[in-house]
Write a structure and sequence with these properties.
about 180 residues
């Protein structure tokens, strides 16, 4: 069970504190996901925004997949999101069912599933006694939620999410 308290506050100090618990690379991914959500007119950062940022920003994340064609297919789906694919998500809250929908005290500007994925990334880092979560930590946490938008995109791009999860569990701790 993931710790749901690591990233559940609602004030600005939480955002500052979060930044101190992420690698520079992952902090850049989070910033890119926030910008993408704003640009796309979405109310919240969701797991697909986070996946998009990870794929664009981190070579280790891209290396976790089955080669360049698979990564290109994933990026193609994610880019199409703002022009058609994903419009069924526009204006809705991503609730994968992995955690109860939080009506109060949630993370402003984040879907419940995205906030849970950030918690999962932090938990994964803490499990290896690291103080900062990295990009592979977040990718593993995204894959952990089979009902998230990120996993929906992965499946549509024919990614074997069980195989990806096993591969990520075999990665050397601390890589990002």
């Amino acid at each position: 069970m993931q710790n749901r308290t690591a990233y559940s506050g609602a004030d600005d100090s939480v955002h500052e504190d979060l930044g101190s618990r992420l690698t520079v690379e992952l902090a850049s991914v989070v910033s890119a996901a926030r910008r993408r959500a704003t640009r796309d007119g979405d109310r919240q950062v969701d797991t697909a925004h986070l996946l998009h940022g990870l794929l664009e920003s981190d070579p280790a994340v891209r290396a976790a997949f089955d080669g360049g064609p698979q990564v290109a297919r994933l990026l193609g789906y994610l880019v199409q999101r703002s022009i058609g694919y994903g419009l069924q998500w526009h204006g809705t809250v991503e609730d994968s069912g992995a955690v109860p929908v939080v009506t109060e005290g949630g993370v402003p500007g984040w879907s419940p599933a995205a906030a849970a994925a950030m918690d999962g990334a932090l938990d994964r880092a803490h499990a290896r006694y690291d103080t900062r979560a990295g990009c592979l930590d977040l990718l593993a946490a995204l894959v952990d939620d089979p009902e998230s938008r990120a996993v929906e995109v992965l499946r549509r791009a024919s990614v074997d999410t069980a195989r990806l999860a096993a591969r990520l569990d075999g990665e050397r701790p601390g890589q990002d």
